[in-house]
Amino acid sequence: MLLLALDTSAGASLALLRTDNDDAPVVLHSAETQEPNAHAEWLAPAVTEALSEAGVDGAEVDGVVVGAGPGPFTGLRVGLALAHALAEGWGIPLHGACSLDSLALRAVDAGITGEFLVTTDARRREVYWAHYESDQEGSRLVGGPFVGGAAELPALAAVGAGVGLYPEQLRSAELGSGSAAWTPHAAELGRLAHGALTGQLQGVLCAPRPLYLRDSDAKVPAQMQAGSRKVGL
């Protein structure tokens, strides 16, 4: 199985993963950028480069998985639009996954146990977050995703960029490796999708639609709102 994974919920990242049967997937190519507002310019060329470096073309890809967020409107739209276009053009399945789940997987890999939070920057002095519980079999979602002020979150150990932004309100899980600055990455989404598609994980995949969690900042001018002006004769 050859999977292309994309995520633009925070920075922009992609990963091309291959696996045989139920074996753990091997990352053939992985890349990311944290440049703000660079998603659209970076992502499509990065996909082309990933396929070229791996020596494959779109016809060999078996599926696309895309991070559904939560995240800002503009960033999420870029990743989802490209994922839809690629899947349709190649005639292959498209799957969505919650971007925060990728950080939960990373936290489990780093050794976290018990209940914990995953947080990312939601701007407006808020964070996107979800509540997970880890045991010997991995992690499960307890609640979320949500958006809110850092001071409103449960008093649990937390990972993700929200911790670095609000260290006085959020308790770091102290896993090392900069866990207070983590952002979602497509490589972990690809691993999760592989687990779901091979029947090893349940409830991981979702519809490839954006999880915005709040209204857009973009407002339609009053003179353009429905019923406020006449179009045509």
How would you describe this protein?
The protein is an alpha/beta fold and 233 residues long. It contains five helices and eleven strands. It has two domains: 2-98 and 185-206, ATPase, nucleotide binding domain (Nucleotidyltransferase, domain 5), CATH 3.30.420; 100-181, Nucleotidyltransferase, domain 5 (2-Layer Sandwich), CATH 3.30.420. Strands 3-2-1-4-5-11 form a six-stranded mixed beta sheet, with helices on both faces. A five-stranded mixed beta sheet has the order 8-7-6-9-10. Strand 6 (114-123) and strand 7 (126-135) form a beta hairpin. The longest helix is centred in the middle third of the chain and has 18 residues, at 73-90. The protein is globular, with a radius of gyration of 19 Å. The N and C termini lie far apart (55 Å). The model is unreliable at 217-233 (pLDDT under 50).
